[in-house]
Every structure is written in structure tokens, then in C-alpha cells.
Amino acid sequence: MSDRSLDGTSVGIVGGGIGGLAAAAYLADDGAAVTLYERSDRVGGVAGRIERDGFRFDTGPSWYLMPEVFERFFGHFGHEPAEFYELERLDPHYRVFWDDGDRVDVPADPEAAARLFESYEDGGAEAFRRYLADAEAAYEAGMEQVVLPGRSRLRDYLSTDVLRAGRELALLDSLDERVSEYVDHPKLRQLLQYTLVFLGGSPHDTPAMYQLMSHVDYGLGVYYPIGGMYEVVEAVEAVARERGADVHTNVEVTGLDPVSGGVAVDLGGDRYVHDRVVCNVPPEYVERELLPAGSVPRLGNYWDRRTYGPSAYLLYLGVEGRVDELAHHTLALPTDWDPHFEAIFEDPRWPEEPTVYVNVPSRTDPSVAPSSHESVVILVPLAPGLDDAPERRERFRETVLETVASYTGVDLADRIVVEESACVSEFARRFNRPGGSALGLAHTLTQTGPLRPGPRVRGVDRLYHVGGGTNPGIGVPMCLLSGEHCADAVAEDVSIGGFDRLSFLARE
Q1: Distance in angstroms (rounded) separating the CA atoms of residues 254 and 167
Q2: For residue 395, how far is the Cα from the chain centroid?
């Protein structure tokens, strides 16, 4: 248990995604009486699992990155990740097929990756090494000065340490502009920018600071937890329960009502008042649907002006036979991917030449598929808000399977024995994501750092945000850190006896 005490403090948590579970663990460890409400029949949120006919599919995140953040979380409670799941480091990190017939395996060894860059462009090896060194510097500056300390308020960025870190982070350039300073070949630019899939942005409007993701990839490695990413969800839940959190599934929160000395949680008939409430649901949904109208002071059409990351078309396929041509992680990329980004962010439409990600965990882990079968997940980023009526989805399914076949030579269509799908409407209905976004708020310049929602709900006493829609942002590691930062905010507020609306706004 930590040296700070929340004994006697009742905390309700709305939503059992990674951020909510992490916050539950930290808060319960501090002595709070934690009750978590999850409306689905299992925790995890978007990071769910489908099990059917011997196949197992992770429904959401499929990349295990930044292992030190997981070690930080479990280490806080006296555990190690290895107590809960076994990690396999992947090599190659991923395989790329382009529409012109070209194919590369991107190796785990940075020097081998440098040689790959040299094969496409004279001087590419040295350019890659420089880029990677700069990415490492940006990562260290960003993590040590911004992300780990949980700086979520504008005043937090006025320290000399943060201002010095800003030089490494290059906040005002776009990632596309930054990458173009190192390499010219369009395929090499794609290899340095593909990590945008984890951030929900376009190369043209994602800040150059996210160059640091290349260090996450090449410097820290890509891993896979045997059994699937849901093993991580279950591990975080186990820690929360171990520390005393009371986790309830199949319980839907229908409203939140700030009351004197606490926040009332409405459960569609029952009503419970907690001293503090943490929301692991999208901030926009909290403000527009759960709280009474006007609870949060906003200027104009604040939420209508937000940029949301892509939705996604997902196929979960149980496939007969092997797919040796595909790696654990495979990308099928058009040589010109700008039209796909335009179809997401500029002129929302179904892409004609989609960028496709294929995940085949059974290549690493035979336990996720029956013998002589493969577990295959296909993901295509889409613009949020698209009409995904059944007939439209069926037409796109054909496009996607044809794209995979034409790029990789793997025709899955006649080998599918199990099939599930998800798209815009599922993300909107199941997870209350605005527009059916799969990722939530994108990491644009105006939605990064202190310009992203912080842990405290503006102007509402005793109510907090946690999860990918808040600072520090999208991804399982960031959601773990969000849980830590949210618990810190609760502990700070309790230690000073709470705060009213005016004092909170003054602190901001």
C-alpha cells in the first residue's frame, strides 16, 4: 500500500476498460472503497475477447509495446508481468506488402533495419540511425518530463525542464514534415509513419513529437502476450481485485448527478452516492449524456470541433489451413496512402484502395486456434460517422478480402469457418464512442498534452476522467498511466479536503 491514505473515501468507477481497472487498482491500494460498474459481461472495454469454436480473437489492441510501462504498473503492487502472462518478442516486427508487388520484413534488430533502409535509398542507413537517435531523445524527453509526471494543465508546461524538453519534442511540426527531413523514398516514409495507426492521426496533422513512436518500435521492441492481449486485461483486473476493488459487470450507469459532498451514480433504478467518481467512458459522452445539461462550462460547440481518430472495419476470421505468407503483424499498403487518409479526415467516405492491417496471432501462439487452422483479424481504418448498413459492409468485406489476396497472395474467402465483424455502429453502440470512433480523440496538435482532457472534469467537483480520451492518450500503456495519474489527482484533492468549482478553475 502507498504512503498516502484514502481510507474512508468511497470511489465509484464508471467503465472497466484498461484505464478504469488501473485506476481501481491504484485507488484501492490507497485505501479507498472502490466500486467499479461495467455494463458488459466482462471488463476490458474495447480491449475485449471473442471465443468461438476453439478460436480466440482479441477484439481491440493487438500490439504489446512499451513493456517498461507494464512493469511500472505491476511493480507498484509488488508484482511482475511474468506472474500473469508470458511475453514473446516478435521478429520480424511486421511484414509489409505493397500494391506494386514489393514485400519487406521489418526486423527487430535496428542495424538490420538500417540495412533495409539503405537498400531503398543511398544514405538510408545513416538517415535511419539519425532518425532513431532523435526518436529516442524525444521519447526520453517526453516520458520523463511530460508523460510520466502526468502534466495535464497548461501551467504544468511552464517549468524550465518542460521547456527544454520541448526542443526535443518539436511540437509545431507535423510528423510528415519531420520524416521528410531524413528520407525521401515514399516507402521508407511509410515505414517511419505507420505507427500513426496507434494514435488515430494523419501524417499531416500529427505532431512531430510522435517521432518517439519509432523508438517504441525499434528501440523497445514489439511483443505478444501468449494467450492474447486479453491476458493483460485479466491481469490488471486481478490486481484491482486483489487490492480490494469491487468489480461489477452487467451493470449500466445511466446518469451522474453532482450532489453535496459527492456524485450520485444512477443505475437505471438504483442510485448510489460516492465521495468521488471516475469515468472510464469518452469525455464527450460523460458531458453530453451522463451529466445534467450545462454541468461542464464549455465555450460554443466545443465537442463538435474535436477531431476524432478513425473508426474501423474489423473481421475476426477462423481460417482453415495455414497462412505462411502472413506474419504475426502484416500491413498491406498502397504505395500512395494519402487518398485513404483523405477518406478518413478530409472527405469522409469508404476507401476505394484501403490500407489493411492483418493480425495472425496463431503464427506465434497455436493456442488461439484449433489444429491446422489460423486465427486472423483484419482491420481497416475508416472515417467515424460513416453509414455502415449491412449491405455496405458486405460490399466492403469483398473489397477487403480481395485486397488481402491481391497484395499478399493469400485468398481467405473460401477457407473461413468462423466469422465475426465490427464497424462504426458497434463502436458507437457498445462503447459510446462519438461517431463510432475506434480510438477516441485523435492526437492532433490541439488535442495533445494540456489541450487534451485531464483527469479532473472541468468545473465539476469530485468527478474525474480516465482512459484513452484523456491525457496522456491512446494505447494500453497510456491508459495504464492515465489510471495512475487519475488516482494521483483524487489523492491530491482528498488531501486538501476537496475543491469547489471556483477554486478548481483558479488552479487550472
Answers
A1: 45
A2: 28
User: Do 119 and 198 contact (CB within 8 A), yes or no?
Assistant: no
**CA–CA distance from 72 to each of 62, 86, 195, 404 (Å)?**
20, 17, 23, 38
Using DSSP's 3-state secondary structure scheme, residue 318 falls into strand
SS3 of residue 244 by DSSP:
coil
The per-residue pLDDT for 502 is: 37
**Cell matching residue 260:** 453535496
Beta carbons of 186 and 338 less than 8 angstroms apart: no
Q: How many CA atoms lie within 13 A of 435 on its CB side?
A: 25
Whole-model pTM: value is 0.93
3-state helix, strand, coil in the chain (%, to 5): 40, 20, 40
Render pLDDT for 42-93 as a digit per residue (tens, 0 to 9): 999 999 999 999 999 999 999 999 999 999 999 999 999 999 999 999 999 9
| Domains of the chain listed by start with CATH number | 10-62+229-304+441-507 (3.50.50.60), 112-220 (1.10.405), 308-431 (3.30.519)
Q: Which residue has the cell 540511425?
A: 129
Residues of the chain with pLDDT under 70: 1-3, 149-172, 197-198, 498-508
SS (H, E, C) 21-62: HHHHHHHHHCCCEEEEECCCCCCECCCCEEEECCEEEECCCC
Taking the C-alpha atoms of residue 420 and residue 426, their distance in angstroms, rounded to an integer, is: 12
Number of H helices, E strands in the chain: 15, 19
Q: What is the DSSP letter of 279?
A: E
Query: Phi/psi class of residue 178: alpha, beta or left (left: φ > 0; alpha: ψ in -120 to 50)?
Result: alpha
Element (H, E) at 266: strand 262-266
* Interatomic CA distance for residues 445 and 213, integer angstroms: 16
How far apart (Å, rounded) are the C-alpha atoms in residues 487 and 466?
9
